[in-house]
Amino acid sequence: MDRILSGIKPTGQLTLGNYLGALKHFKDFQDQSEVFIFIADLHALTLPIDPEVLRNNSIDIASFYLASGLDPKKCTIFLQSSVSAHAELNAIMQNYLFMGELKRMTQFKDKCSKMNDSQIGLGIFAYPVLMASDIILYDANIVPVGEDQIQHVEITRDLVHRFNTKYGDILIMPKAQIRKVGARIMSLSDPTKKMSKSDPKGDIFLKDDMKTIRKKIMSAVTDSGTEVKYDPENKPGISNLLTIYASCKDISIEEAEKTFNGFRYGDFKKAVADAVEEELTPFKQRYEEIIASKAYVKVLKEGAEKASKVASKTLKRVQKAVGLLTID
Ligand code: ATP
Ligand code: LTN
Hints:
Blueprint: E1 3-8, H1 16-26, E2 34-39, H2 41-44, H3 51-67, E3 75-79, H4 85-93, H5 99-103, H6 106-112, H7 122-125, H8 127-137, E4 142-144, H9 150-167, E5 175-177, H10 210-218, H11 236-249, H12 253-259, H13 265-293, H14 296-322
Parallel strand pairs: 1-2, 2-3, 4-5
The site of adenosine-5'-triphosphate has 21 residues, from α1.
């Protein structure tokens, strides 16, 4: 049976990009696979963050997970920090990834390009080690993520290969699973940049009210010309809106393109806003109910117990393999 693992870090308000690229699809696995979905709160500490903001963001993500249809009876939902094996495995795995590899990571370069060495914490540099540990702990073979995370899964694969070559077949080889549509939603104000929760210009936030969301879509940057056509290079704005539409409707880009043959930009944007509203309205309602009932508390508590059982077994296996004396 497939083992699925993914997580979102509570660094800010979740965006439509997080939803369409990752969150929306997690539930699709829970009927036929073993699914582990977590809140990557230790990762959120890798850049400065206010403690109260971190706590609230974590509660939000847990509630969004439940609102997306993830069922705690069918999957395991937990906080990374409540399973200590993540930090313990990290301490071992940091010896099997090297400075040169870590320096080449796009996320590290993007996030730290404007900082000097006295501002860059070790955690953001070593980020891929912790992420690899997250994946390895649950013997996950499938890691559903947006496009920006492929490089981190690839370095995990390098680590697994390196480790298994040295110690035998100890770790499961994971693979990133990327959506055909929606793996990279772009900013509405600059469609050449990724929509990102830490760079909130041109973002749609899941907590925005529907009126604001519609307004943002209606004022999204479009391109010269009049044709609604998928051409990311020459028409990044229109292509991004087509992607958002296709992803909300669960159809291909080609089908979306056909739907808008002959449409004016204004009418097209209105249809995109309708599709987003249709998709997000029930989701947002469920989120409000979950926040009000605090349903996430029990889920996170039980999730931590379930996750810890699985994680501690893998940790033991790794400790033994590298020669740590494990006394049962
Ligand atoms: P940050 O801005 O703090 O780096 P982020 O918005 O990129 O955060 P993450 O927590 O890194 O979000 O990502 C959670 C999941 O959402 C990941 O699987 C990531 O690949 C996916 N994701 C993030 N942004 C987008 C986007 N614009 N389009 C599609 N998927 C995305
Ligand atoms: N790096 C990811 C969050 C994350 C993750 C993981 C995703 C941390 N550990 C393990 C998948 C598997 C991000 O920034 N979205």
